Every structure is written in C-alpha cells, then in structure tokens.
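Re: the multi-chain job from yesterday

Posting the exact lines I submitted so nobody has to dig through the queue logs.
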Amino acid sequence: MNDERLDSTLGAFYKGTAKAPPDPEHGLREVITRLPRTRQRSRWWPLPTLGRRSAPDPRDAEYQAVTQPLVADRFPIVTRRTYTMFSPITAITTAALVFALGGLLLVAQPFAQQEEGAPGVQLTAQTDAVAVTATQECDTSASPVACTYTASDPRVAGSGGHVFVEGISGQGHFVVPGSEAAVYWTDFWIEGPEGAWTGHSYLVGDDAGAINALTMLAGDGAYEGWSYITYGSDAEADADHDLIGVIYEGPLPPVGPVVIPGGD
Amino acid sequence: MDEGLVVRAQQGDQRAFEALAVDAYGRLYRLAHGILRDATMADDATQQALVNIWQDLPRLRDPSRFEGWCYRLLVNACHDQTRRSPRWISIDGPHGHEPIACDDAASVADRAELEHGLSRLSLEHRTVLALRFLLDLTPDEIADALGIPRKTVYSRLQRALASLRAAMDAEARPVLSRPLPREATR
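And the result, structure tokens for all chains:
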C-alpha cells in the first residue's frame, strides 16, 4: 500500500469506524453530578494576562465600522474599543534574548578568532582520521527528508537527506508493540563541496520516543576511499540534533556474516 | 463554540459548563474512541476529561483556544486510562461485523489489517493519527492541541505511518518478520 493509498484508507477507516457515544445522556449526568464535588483550580498567576488578545469576531457589532456624520465640517472624535498588536511579554522576552545573545557573542569572540576553530576553515593538512562535530537540521515535511549539515570539517558540510528504507531482506521496520521502541533504517546522503557521502543510517527508537542513530557513509568524488561514521541522539525525534563522528581514510566497517575464530 | 460560555464557566458557572459539555461530548468521545479503540474506555476517558476540563478551566488563558485545549486534556485522560488498564488492545475487535460507511478504498481486508496495525502502535502514534485522519486537523492544529513543536508532529506522523505499515506488513508476512536464527547469519 503506497503513501497516498494509506492516507486515504486511514481517513476512510477512521471516519467509517467513528462511533457516537453509546449513552451520552448517562455520561453527561455522571459528569454533572461530579462537578459540585470538584473544586476548580485557580489560575497560578493572579493578575489578568498581559499577552496579546485573540482577534475579535468581525461579526461582533461592537467591532463594526460605523459612519459618523461631520460636525461643523469636521470629523468628530470617536472613542471606540481598539486592540493593540503589541504584547509586553513578547517585547520583554525578545529584548532579553537579544541582550543575552549580544552578551554571549561578545564573550565568545576571542575564542572564535583562535586559529582553526572557526567553522568552514579549510583544513590544510589531512590526517588519517579527523574528529568531526556537526549539526543536522531537517525539513521532515519534505519527502525524502531534506537536511542541512553544518560541520567542523567542511567535507561533510552541505545539504543532504534521508529516506526510510522498506523491504530490506523482504522486511520493514521492527516495532515493539504498544511502544515507541523500534528499529529503523534509512538511505542517507550528504552532498559535500567536492563529492558526496552515501550510505545507511541505523536508528533505534527508545520507549521515551528518542532516536539514536549510527550512520555509516562512504565518500566519492574527491572523498573516494574515505569513510565517515557519525552518531547522534535525537531526544525530540524531530531530526534536528548534534552529531559526533570521525572521517578516516579507509573502508566502511564490515557487515555480513561473522567468522568467529575457533567457532563452529 | 461560544467564548462567552467558556468565560462564564471559568468563573464557576456550572450551567455554562453543562452547555459546553453537551456540545463537546460527542466530539471528545469520537476522538477518545479513535485513540483507544475501545467503547468503554473511551466513555470513561471522555467523562474524566470533562471533569478535568471543569477543574482546570480557570487556568485557560485564551478562551478562543478552548477546543484545542480540550483535546489535550482528553489525550491525557486517555493516557490515564491505559495506565489503569495496561491490556487495552481493542475489544471492539479487528473483525467486527458492524456495517462500515467506508468507500471501496477501505475494504474489509484493509480494515482488519488497519485495526491490527493500530493495536500495535504506541498511544502517541495512535493519538497523532486520530487527530490527523479522524478530526482532519492540520499539523499546526495538532501541535497546538498536543503542546508540541510542529516539526515533532511531522516526525511523529511519519513514524506512526511507518510503524503502521511495518505492523501491517508483519501481519501479512509472519514468517519473514521473525528474527533469523543465529546459525543463519554465519
């Protein structure tokens, strides 16, 4: 069943199996009899909220435009209720964030100017293995998921993405019933500045909904013969998270049958 | 939804709340049933959610968001129900014989597969699917109702659909879905 068919089938299924309450009067009576015994909790903030109010209903007569006759060839002063677009809480929070960020940048400036610490600086001498820290930001609404990678090593910075693989060995993902725990795998790629990295990502979802992903990629183009192994833990499961990894000159770790010395 | 009624109920007016409850009961029940797939538990969750709504109503800051806020409390009540009854897999059953108002796309076979697949999903995944496909809420509305970021909604929807498809595939291919014996990997 493809995505579109599954979507339409799910819609028809949910609407077709939606049920009306068997005895709503009885249910409502149960609720109403419990109300006098249930004390309402008061708002923790005792004052009226300062946030922006929701827009009024345009059909409300109080907010309709009114025609005012001229008085002595002048428009009269009309006092009506108005709404402000300005929210004091939003303004204060924004100002605090701006000042905090400004202060942080001032403090961080000397460190950013040190030697090769700045992101995007081309490494002059490649070693056999290079440690990498990176961040992944993805648009999960796209199909396949489209990602942007910023990394301490420019070879693995750029655009990329991943797509959930189905049908490996005739099987799909493995999901623990009634839980978020599961195993997934994806096809994975990063378009570096002088070549691409392609491979697979292996994801383990835990019961709390977090996803832990190990990704193994082989380089091509200028990165032929190099491998990039990276790991990230995604607590929010929204595909945006930090990565740690290593780029090295050599093949990917072996997969497949295991030969145990001295075994059967 | 009458915001005036919500404001009056916030101030402790039980009559106003009763009017809101009458209006919301059927909608909340349908969502609870969509999540729990069990008529008795859905009824209990709906009643508990309405009592919780009454209790917490003064804390609702913006009356215009009453409906989405109700969904959030209902989802919490569904969680509580499943904690009380850990074995909560549908008793309405995947092979019920009630007439179905589905079109051809949702054949009886599809329905049985879907019921089975849904029974294997986590509550979070069932919730997001029910909000999306039963109530036709947009991802933004789901994010608002569940109090989670919009990107998490997309991600959770994607994972829920992948899990559902995997569960349905596993049902269709029971032999292949078992782990291979160790000898076979050597």
